[in-house]
Design goal:
With about 290 residues, this protein is an alpha+beta fold. It folds into 2 domains: about 80 residues, no CATH class; about 150 residues, Nucleotidyltransferase, domain 5 (2-Layer Sandwich), CATH 3.30.420. The chain has 10 helices and 5 strands. It has a 5-stranded mixed β-sheet, with helices on both faces. Helix 6 links the parallel strand 4 and strand 5. Helix 4 crosses helix 5 and helix 8 runs parallel beside helix 10. The C terminus is likely disordered.
């Protein structure tokens, strides 16, 4: 093994990549090296036994191989950077009648949007949220859902993210964008295990969260019924049975700009099903909010 091989193998051994990707990259380097060698061996010679093409100096060959390796490593790093940027770290479920789930990356951009029913697909086609910051994506969704929003309508927003600050930002933007014309907006959080369970059940995060709370409270409702019921009826079912919904943000009625700021304490003055009146016991990590109306 020569110095170049040793340097290359040492560099690759320190990389955090799959064995398959390392192997493929090394094979590509060896292929480029072989092509360079063949071109040198096949170079035309002049008259006589002495070749007219001089042997490529060792230092020059090292620079060529290093350049090839650098290019391939740059491609590898670029692929890794793309995967890093595209990896979701937060999930947001928005359930009105259209039921939508957005995946948010660490740069607050929407990297995936899933329609969980037919109405949702039409909304996503109109909103075009891919690549937008969540605030812009939520505003675009609200505009596309304008015909669904209004007095008495319930919007359920479920958030799955380990970053408390990011959760609060998502909730505030959700309340601001969807709390229009008397629309009641409820926010709640779930962990990753429950988010995955919601995905398997074909439900939005927020809807599945309510279903689990009803089930845990002994309310007889099947998974299929919970998936089919309008959010307002699902909320009413919780209220009728005294189920604490443990909302992390209270409903917002679109007074003014429709914004309901999050603040510590009970949801005094909040209206609608599932809104807390300050008398209930809140779950761990609860954040109450006051309605702007």
């Amino acid at each position: 093994m020569n110095d170049i091989d040793e340097c290359m193998r040492e560099a690759f051994s320190n990389m955090h990549a799959s064995d398959e990707l390392k192997k493929a990259t090394m094979l590509r380097v060896e292929r480029e090296r072989g092509l360079a060698s063949n071109r040198r061996d096949c170079a035309p010679c002049g008259q006589g036994s002495a070749p007219s093409a001089r042997r490529v100096p060792r230092k020059r060959r090292m620079r060529v191989f290093a350049a090839v390796a650098a290019c391939l490593i740059a491609v590898f790093v670029g692929a890794g950077g793309y995967a890093y940027a595209m990896k979701p770290i937060a999930y947001v479920g928005v359930d009105i009648n259209p039921s939508i789930e957005l995946s948010i990356n660490r740069f607050d951009r929407v990297v995936d949007a899933r329609a969980l029913n037919e109405d949702a697909q039409a909304v996503l086609d109109a909103a075009n949220v891919q690549g937008k910051p969540y605030a812009e994506a939520a505003a675009a969704l609200a505009a596309a859902c304008e015909s669904y929003l209004g007095e008495g309508v319930v919007v359920e927003v479920g958030v799955s993210c380990s970053d408390e600050g990011r959760c609060e930002e998502i909730e505030q933007e959700s309340l601001r964008c969807f709390g229009q014309g008397g629309t009641q907006v409820h926010c709640g959080r779930v962990d990753e295990a429950r988010r995955q369970a919601a995905e398997r059940a074909g439900m939005s995060i927020g809807r599945y969260r309510l279903y689990c709370l009803l089930e845990e409270a002994g309310v007889e409702v099947s998974e299929q019924e919970a998936a089919a019921l309008p959010m307002r009826e699902l909320r009413a079912l919780a209220a009728e049975n005294g189920v604490e919904t443990q909302d992390s943000a209270c409903c917002g009625h679109g007074a003014g700009d429709g914004f309901s700021a999050l603040s510590e304490g009970a949801c005094e003055g909040a209206e609608g099903h599932g809104a807390h009146d300050g008398r209930g016991t809140h779950g761990e990590g609860y954040r109450g909010g006051r309605s702007s109306s």
